[in-house]
């Protein structure tokens, strides 16, 4: 996969490659996702470095995505969720209900990839930690996603309370990629409080087993992939 630096105008291109599973097929698999970005408009209008990492992981798991009910939180431009939809998952993309312009931009990101909003993917405004009726209609999910949603410590509990509600009583997993910005930040106590447990995924082993290297995506940033489940 490329690191997404192939930028054409305001379109950022992400390329995912992999070997085909069918014997004798040497064509390989290829998926290109384009994201229209507005670099100065705000947090949700461009793709943060954690998003290609989560998308890369989903690409390594692409054969298991078909039919899964996938929900992405704080998705911004929605790269991981769009990839999951392209791989056959039933995807709901969410971002802040207080940012209608971001939600419109998210629709444009879907359309740029041939996905018709509210036909091929659902798009919904949500506020972490607020349990409005829309949130109840989101259950059940099989896979919950978020990239770079742990960037403001005062919001960690809001994110995790929403995650706990969506995972409660199910086998669903929450996969989140994040950038380590301070050694002092931790979600350990909050995981315990909300009946959750987390484990970091071993990216080196995943690279080896998938044959797709993640290192060019990460560069010298401290990026991680965490899997959280209900206890
Ligand atoms: C750092 S950006 C990450 C965007 C995207 N996931 C990515 O990695 O490119 C954080 C995202 O969380 C959304 N967000 C912030 N506060 C939120 C809240 N209280 N409820 C829901 N979404 C929120 C923002 O609108 C933004 O899209």
Question: Would you mind describing this structure in some detail?
Answer:
With 231 residues, this protein is α/β, with parallel strands linked by helices. 28% of the residues lie in helices and 27% in strands. The chain has eight helices and ten strands. Strands 6-5-4-7-8-10-9 form a seven-stranded mixed beta sheet. It has a three-stranded antiparallel beta sheet with strand order 1-2-3. Helix 3 links the parallel strand 5 (90-96) and strand 6. Mean pLDDT is 90; it is low at 1-9. Bound molecules: S-adenosylmethionine (SAM). GO terms for molecular function: methyltransferase activity. Keywords: Methyltransferase, S-adenosyl-L-methionine, Transferase.
Q: Assign the CATH topology.
A: Rossmann fold
What would you report as the Rg, rounded to the nearest angstrom? Answer: 17 Å
Major sheet description: 7 strands, mixed
Q: Report the end-to-end length measured between terminal Cα atoms.
A: 34 Å
Q: Determine the strand fraction and express it as a percent band.
A: 25-35%
Helical stretch tally: 8
CATH class: Alpha Beta
Q: Which compounds are bound in this model?
A: S-adenosylmethionine
Any guess at the CATH architecture? 3-Layer(aba) Sandwich
Spatial ordering of strands, largest sheet: 6-5-4-7-8-10-9
Unreliable stretches, pLDDT < 50, 5 or more residues? 1-9
Q: Total number of β-strand segments?
A: 10
Q: Fraction of residues in helices? A: 25-40%
Choose one word for the global shape: globular
Mean pLDDT across all residues, rounded? Answer: 90
Order of secondary-structure elements: EEEHEHEHEHEHEHEHHE
CATH superfamily: Vaccinia Virus protein VP39
- Determine the structural class based on helices, strands and strand pairing: alpha/beta
